[in-house]
Amino acid sequence: MVAQVALAVLLFHALWLVAFLGTGHNIRGLINVGPHFILGGKTSSVIDHDPSYRAVAPLTRKNADEAGYDGQFSFYIALDPTRARSYIDGPSYRYERILYPMLARFTALEQPAAMPWTLLIINWLACGGGVLALAAWLRRKGASPWLAAIYGLYPGMLVAIQCDLTEPLAYGLVALGVYLFDFGGRRGVIASAVAFALAALTRETTLLFPILYGVSILGARPGANPHRELATRIRHALGFLAVSCLPFTLWLILDYSWLGVPHTEPLSPVPLSGLFSPGLSLPLRSLEFVCVALPALLFSAVALPALRRRDGRLERLCLLANTAMMVVFSAGVVWAGYASISRQGIAVVLAALLCLPYVRAPAIGRAGARQRRSRLVLTAAFALWIVMLPVALYGGFHRGLTSPPETIAAGRTVAADG
To answer: In the 8-state DSSP scheme, what is residue 402?
Structure first.
């Protein structure tokens, strides 16, 4: 049953990719290269403009036709790790997420022509692997493993695969870390910490999960030995946090020493202030609020009162922390379009699904009525998350077209074509 869920999700994405490539689209359409960046750098001999490819109907709303989208930066790093910095906005910030482009580079055997394909295949498999780990975890917790398909079919996941973004690999590793933490056996906690460490090197926002899981070791969470000495729990928690967080910390020090401290503002001190950022149309952002932020807030509203219960407290804290950081306090740039805010929502959807085994069956009387209302709210939240899937499926076809043949002779082709 668990494997069937993952295979169904993989098949869904495979069918979309076959349709995308089979209708004349270019594999580099998933990278969404922007001429503003690829023409701006002059230091690499393998990163070059390809006049045979043009991006159409880009995903961002402001200057998107010139800027492209974030997947291009992973592509540039994969092509030329030491010289890609001159083709990147905020190089030290983009280099924080080093695992995905380097994995694509090495699985392509450093062959530029293969890298657009390895970027895609890694994310496709990572999505299926995340669904597999989550489905197995849900089954072991007594919930239906098919609920994990919501994670794999969430429109933000499709956007991330369509655009060669870091989220599928990062949160697939988080799902693996969660499973290993709870059901990995004697060495599962250490294996979990390794998975979380790799996730952090893929995307730094995943650190919320290992930090909360590490702190939970101090409290002898359900299933742990309640008689273990506090000093032992502290030692184990510090060891877990060291394994899961130290590799990223060391890489960050090296990154900033080389490229400088980034000037980014990913968070805002005012809740939901990104919705009202100057230069963005509030009516357009109502879509992002209804289909990403509102379901996250609905789920959090159900989870917050239940924090007093010991079972599921860690999972609820993960949901509340991710909702706060990824949605409520996200800066205005994250609200610039559905693509950007929906990919943020992947973390919230994963955390929400982790809370489901702790949603109790309806009881009789007033308590039962409250529980039935909670289930109705959660069902509505999942429906709002999924409702944009047809739009994401259709929107992905507006990228990666090949220009007429006469434009090919206008200049050199990108190194990815050999």
So the answer is: E
- Cα separation of 28 and 32, whole Å? 7
The closest of 381, 323, 360, 357 to 136, measured between CA atoms, is 357
Report the 10 Å Cβ neighbour count for 383: 11
- DSSP characters over 26-58: -GGGGTT--HHHHTT--S-SS----TTEE--S-
The CA distances from residue 226 to 40, 186, 220, 302, in Å, are 59, 17, 6, 28
Q: Which residue has the tokens 């994969």?
A: 78
Which tokens sit at 267? 């968070």
On whether residue 312 sits in a domain, the answer given is no
Residue 313 in domain = no
Q: What is the pLDDT of residues 371-397, one digit of tens each?
A: 777 888 899 999 999 999 998 888 877
Cα distance between residue 208 and residue 191, in whole Å = 17
Nearest by Cα to 383 from 416, 349, 406:
349
Q: Domain total for the chain?
A: 1
What's the rounded Cα separation, in Å, for the pair 299 and 320?
9
- Judge contact between 152 and 128, C-beta under 8 A: yes
**What is the residue range of 410's domain?**
2-264+389-417
Using DSSP's 3-state secondary structure scheme, residue 60 falls into coil
**Per residue in 165-222, pLDDT tens?**
999 999 999 999 999 999 998 889 999 999 999 999 999 999 999 999 999 998 755 5
Residue 253's Cα: distance from chain center in Å? 23
Give the DSSP letter string of 72-137.
HHHHHHHH-TTTGGGGSSSHHHHHTS-HHHHHHHHHTTT-GGGHHHHHHHHHHHHHHHHHHHHHHH
To which residue do tokens 């905020």 refer?
90
Which structure tokens are listed for 86? 């001159």
Q: Is residue 373 part of a domain?
A: no
Give the residue carrying structure tokens 């076809």.
397
Rounded-to-5 percentages of helix, strand, coil across the chain: 70, 0, 30
Predicted TM-score of the model (pTM): 0.89
232 falls within a domain: yes
Inter-residue contact 200 to 207 (CB < 8 Å): yes
Q: β-pairing, 53-54 with 401-402?
A: antiparallel
